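hi! just following up on the protien thing from before. the input was this:
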Amino acid sequence: MNEREAGFTLLEIIVALVVLGVLFATLSQGVRFGFASWGRQDQALRRGEALAATDRTLRRLIEQMDPGSEREGATLAGRAHAMAFIAPLPESAQQAGSGAVSQAADMRLGVTDGHLLLSWLPHRHAVRLVPAPAPQTTVLLDGIAGIDLGYWSDGSQQWSSSWSGNSLPDLVRIRIVFGEHDQRHWPDIVEAPIRAQVPG
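and the predicted 3d structure came back as:
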């Protein structure tokens, strides 16, 4: 056996190390790309779940809006970017509340600093003799530019950007506005209040 057959030359070892280095670099880039893609997909799924949960919550609140009574009038004060209304608290909010006597609550929906906020206080039919406590607030959605609200009346056959009538609108529309570079999209939430006004 001569020296050539006894092992590898220095040049062959260097070539082999270069090839292994290229392979490891390629594999490392592929793994990093895979993790980055997985992270983006996971983030997109989480954002989609948050939007779907917000959609369900808002639809339920609109459906269950308290229409008030013929004597007291409607309970909705609607503007273009916020609205105040009375509706039953979701079960999760009732459990988080501090022993609310009534399931109904005075609610406000609006956007502050990019957060879609739902604030509420237990509804009281009697006049308060002491100042109302600070409302509880839940963040429904983060990172949005705002909301556009619309109120439909079958009588006028058009959308209005405000509502202060003696009855609830026939439809309420909530459009979630995302930032210019936000890739999220969500269809308008359009729902009809279903509760009838109480006579007298």
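The helical segments are 3-6, 10-63, 91-96.
Residues 10-63 form the longest helix (54 residues).
cheers
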